Structures are given as structure tokens and as C-alpha cells.
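Exercise 3.2. Students should predict the tertiary structure of the chain below and write it as C-alpha cells, then compare their answer with the key that follows.

Predict this chain's 3D structure.
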Amino acid sequence: MNGLAQDIRYAVRQLLKSSGFAAVVVFSLALGIAANSTIFSVLNAVLYRPMAYDHPERLVAIWETKPEHPDSTQPPPIAEMNDWKNQNHVFEDIALTSETEASTLSGLGEAEPIRVQDVTPNFFGLLGVKPAMGRIFRPEEMQDLAQTVVISNSFWKRKFNSDPNVLGKTFNIQGVVSTVVGVMPAGFAPFYGDRIDLWQPINAESTRYSERLDHWLMPVARLKPDVTVAQAQLEMNMIARRVELAYPATNKGVGKKVVPLHQELFGWAGKALYPLFGAVAFVLLIACVNVANLLQSRTEVRRKEYALRAALGSGRRRLIQQLLAESGLLALLGGGLGVILTFSGIALFRNLARDFPNAGNISVDAQVLLFTLGVSILTAILFGLAPALQASRPDLTLVLRQSEGRTSIASRGYARHLLAISEVALAMVLLIGAGLMINTMLRLHRVDPGFDSKNVTTMAVQLPEGGKYLVRVPGGDMEKPLPLVTTFYHRLLERVATLPGVESAGIISKLPTRGSEVFTFSILGHPAPPEKGFYAGFAEVSPSLFATLRIPLRKGRYLDEHDTQSMPWSVIINETFARHYFPNEDSIGQRVLLRYEPYDVNEERPRQIVGIVGDVRHFGLGQPVPPFIYASYLQQPVVFPGGAVAAHLDQSLVVRTAPGLSGRQADLATAAKKAVTELDPDQPVTDFMTMDQVLAESIGDTRFYMSLLGLFAGIAVLLAVVGIYGVMSYFVSERTHEIGIRVALGALPSDVLSLVGKLGLKLTLIGVAIGVGLAIGLTRLIAGFLVGVKPTDPVTYAVVAAGLMGVALLACYIPARRATRVDPMVALRYE
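Answer key:
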């Protein structure tokens, strides 16, 4: 131990004497370690850290599968949970929960949007979480004209000022009177870390769900102790067959799939994060190679010192120990600075990722610190071992006879060249990955969305599923919108269209690029569709939407104000629909009958195709355009199954303004909000954005990936350039004597430049070639993020290779330029 302490003290003195060298090494390592620690902290928060519930490893999700789509899943009917609870022997309990949903709060001042989650009363008990105040739901409680709610701790603080007497307070949620019965503890927000304001009760035993046609709640179950997921799957397979016999109309061929809850919620994130983890590992490798190169140069300079120590009796083990102490100290300093930089890395990740699951829980905790320590130790071994082994075997006769300036041995020069080649190759891989993502972004920006987004502003209006807009039909899960829904939107469009600077206004149930409802349908007078049905995207719109978004008409006519409930129902289709379903006949005049899946309910009337419009990218700029149907909000069913009525109640207002008003969106938002308030004081306006922002949002994942890969590639290139510069500088210093002789014999500056440049070009070309080979195999990991670009795109490879060679040659130029200024007389006296 005394020897180790002595080596550490000596290492500190040596590094203080070479503070510039130490600073470069520590900063290089800190960049690589911080990048790794940042991505690991994300992986830790999303994939590795156990969920904050009692025995989370025993929590599973249960899904429904169908024979025609065995690999896809959907939620089972709500009432089926009771069958499972009565027949299984592997679960302690089963509860139901929805995804986080947008809703509307009124009765506590100005109406505002909130985030809610629907759960069965046993949900909190299944997770093993108790309220901080009050109680959870009782079994008989459910959503109705009045309901109980449990609020989150943050909502309690924000809306009630942490009032200890909050229990019993009431307000309206979507027009339903809601009474607070409990407050959950701080930090409780299942399941994605999203903000949740409150929970509403669902009663699975209600007759409302007896038709078994509702599929929108996720079952969560807790396994009994010592029961495995495989055993639960076997049990659910048997239950599925029994339920199929009891309810053949809804459960024919329907299977069940049991998945660990953590895997179900976050398993997808690995596909996005592990390629990034590989990228930062490359950054760290480049940093280690760079530092190894610097240490090797330092070893050459100190070779006489090592030889003297060996001559005085210092053993090989002691020399290695002393050098590894220096390497370890550098690595630990780099790790310490890396931890500090990790905080900035996490903040940058959150800013780029925005709504990434559990982004709020990403932090530097004990696991991240332990990982950083492990990485620091590993880097010390990676960059320090080879120079230490090399320095521990000095040729005493050769070294002691050589001067301080001439200690190089050819094999060590080759080793240094190999390190430089490795840096270029690794940087090449990262640059190609970033280049492919940049190429994808450029292509996405050139994609025609199918409409004119300039000078268009959007905002969301969500009418409540209760009160004056909707009634539930007795005897099943059917909902009837009242005429006031149509009246509200008709008057809203009239008012907004008359606002100063507004050219036109329309509504659509879901904005382009944000997806849409998908309907199955049949074509009247044509052969019956296959078992899986014909499929098409669907949007409910106002007739004015096409003019507002300037969607071009290809054939027939647009929808208009005469397409009312009393007239024959009409629809507009896109060009893809016409090509796909009517390849050899005219689609105008054909009639389609839409069907609500998975409710197995047909619309009450067929709809006639009256026009064909251009294709619009409803599912994203990078996604193919599917067949699509547009129907007027004035022509909708009297009743809707399940939650399908949401597409009729929830609309996005789309407003086109005059070109000169592009900077006055805030004024338009205020005016539109006033128009809504005049129609309904309890109705908020949310999600205010320009259409250009909506388009940018649709490629947010691609931009996020491109930004991170570009950042990592930039760090890699910086480190590689430093490495190449170091190699070429050492090459020039080692061959100063030779260069002086060449100049004395008449060599021109261009000849000296060529001598140095050829070596730099040779090393770079070899590194680029190796990097291309590696990239061809590794870029397939990001193929899912590429749009219109192949992982082996030759243009991207060529541009990146040319750019990297240019940067590398620039790094060679400074040492080469210095070599041309060598004074022959000085060089000849170099010995």
C-alpha cells in the first residue's frame, strides 16, 4: 500500500508539471464519459430502474390477440376482466387503466385543459399505493352524472393551494360534477412519468359494458408469489378458450397475451436508446485512442527516465503500477468532470426529447455514479495499459545511448499510426450515421404534405362527453351527441371567419400528420370485402376545411353546406383511395358503408363519393399515404358506439390568415378564445400552434435522433482531428533531422508538404475505408429512423468521406507547414 500511495503522489507531481497535457487528456475523457453517462442515465430511468411500486416484477399487462393479426394486440372488453378474476388461479388481482387523456376542467375559475386517467377502483390497491389524504374509490363508484375523483399531489398544490380541507370539494370534469375523495402522494404518476391531474373511476360490472364491444382500457394484473409469466400465459390460454365458448360472437379465435408490465411500457425504448448507447461508446473509444496516442508520445519523451529507474532496480511490475496510477488518476479526473457535464447532457436530452417517457425522472443517481466509476476505470485500462507495458520494457543500452530527442522505434511509430487510423474509422461510422439522419431530414422537409401550411394557425376544442352535449343510450355502451354539438361548431366557424385578417376557417377531427381514425368499410354493389375488411383513414371535417388548407380537388366536387343530415350522406376520398379500390372504374357516385371496429357496428346510412382530392400526409411526413375518407361534421350518426363519439366532439380549428398577419398569432388566439367563451364559458381552447409547427412536430423524433448523432459525431471528429494532429506533429518532430537534410539537398517546400501530407492522407484513407466497412453493418441499427434513405446510401457515404478527409488534411497542414520552415543548419545540429 505504501508503494501505491507513493506512486499516486508521484503521479500527481508529474501531472502538475504537465498541466497542459493533463488538461487535454482530462477534457477528452470527460466528453466521452459524459456522453456515456448521459445516455446511461436515460436507459437507467426508462429500462433499468424498477418501477416505484410494491414488487413491480410481479406486475403484468394482459392483451387480446386475433387470429388474423397474431402479432398485434389490443385491449380486451372491459366486462371480460370479471371472467378472468373469477376463473384464474395465478393472479392476486386484476385492474384496468386507460392511457393519460386530455380532459376539460371547469368550476375552479377559468376553464382549462387537464390530464386524467380512468381506472377501476382496485387499481391503487393492486399497485400497493395508498392516498396521502382521504380514500380511494369504492367498488360501486363510476363515471356518471356525478362522480368521485382522486387528485394528484401536484394538482392539489396547484389548484387548491395545498388546502388540508380539500376533501369534499367539487368541480366539473367534461361537464360531470366531480367530488374529491382522495389525494395521492407526491411523485405518484403511473405509468410513463407523464403529468396526471386526477383519476376517475370505471366500474367494470356496469351494464354499460355488457355488450363486450369496448376495447380501450389496459388490464394490469399482479402475479401471485412464485408464479411465472409463462404459467400465467398458460392459464390465460385456457381462460380464453372458455370465454370463446361462452361468447362466440365477440371472442371467436381471440387469444390472450401476458407481458411483464415494465416490458410493455418501456420495452420499445431500447430500439431507440441502444443505438445511441453504441454511438457514445464509439465516442469514448475515440477518446481512449486519442489519450493512448498522447500517452505514447509522452512515454517516448520519458523513456530515458524509465530506463534509469529500471537500471536502478525498479522492477517491471512497479513501472507498470506507477504508469497505471497516472492513467487511473487521469481517468478519475475525467470521470469527475464527466459527472458534472452529465447534468448538462441530461438537460440537453430533455430539451431535445421533450415528451420522452420518464424524462422528468432522468437523474444522476447511485447507479449512474457507479456506472461512471466503472467506465472511468475501464478507460484507464484501455488507454493506459499499452503505454505502460511498452514503457516497462526499455532497451537500456539503446535508450541510455540516445539523446532526449531521438527515442523513437519504428514499431512504436506503426502503433501510433494504427491508433490514428482507429480514430478516423470510428469517427467515420458516427459521421455516416449523422449524415444519414441529416439526409432523412432534408428529404422530409422536401415532402409535399398535400396542403399549404403557410399562414395557417390551429387550436384544439374538446367538447365534454357529458352535460349538454351528450347523453348515454340505456342498455349498452352507446352515446348520443345532442344537436348542440353541430350548432356550437357552426357558430364558432361563423364567428372566427369574420375576425379581422381571417381569410377562411375550418375544423377537422385530427390535424394532418397526427394520425386519424381508421375505419373498415364495404362498397355497395361490389363483392364482399375480405375477412379483415377494407381499411381507410377517416376524418370528420367542415366543408370549408379544403379551402382553408388549400387541398386540391382532382375530380368531382368538394363537400358544401348543402350536405346536411337530411340530404344523402356524401364523402370525399383521396387519390390513393380511388387508385386502390377503383383501379378500373370511376369512383364518383360509388357508395360505401362505414363500420366501427372493434364494435362490429355499421353506420346507419351509406355515404356516396362525390369528389376526389389530392393525397394529404395524415400519418406523418415520413409515412406512406393510405386510402382516406373525409365526411362532413354535419352528416354524422345519431348514436356512436363506445368512445367513438370523441371524433365528433373533439375538433381542431384551422384558420388561414392574410399573409401580412403571420406575426399576430397571439391576437388571433385571444380572439378565437373569446369567440369560444361567448358560446360556452366552460370550454377552453388549447394546443395553439401554427401549421408549420405541427409539421415540424411530426418529424420531431427524426430531428431528435439527428441532433444527438450529430452532436456525438461532432465530438468524435474533434477528438479524431486532435489525434491526427498529434500524430503528424510527432512525425515532423521525429524527422526534423531528415527534413533538414532534404532541404539542404534542394527539396522545395512543396516536397516537404507532400512528404507529410502523403502520410496524413494515407492514414485517413485507410481509416475511412475501415469506417465504411463498419458503417455498412452498423447503420442498419438506425434503419427504422430513415425515410427515403437506405443505410448504404452512396451519396451520404461519399460526402462524409470527402468531408472527413478534408478535415483530416487540414489537421495535417499545420505540422506540414511547420516542417517547411525547418532551418537546415538547425536540423543538421539536431543530434
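Discussion points: The chain has a mean pLDDT of 85. The radius of gyration is 34 Å.
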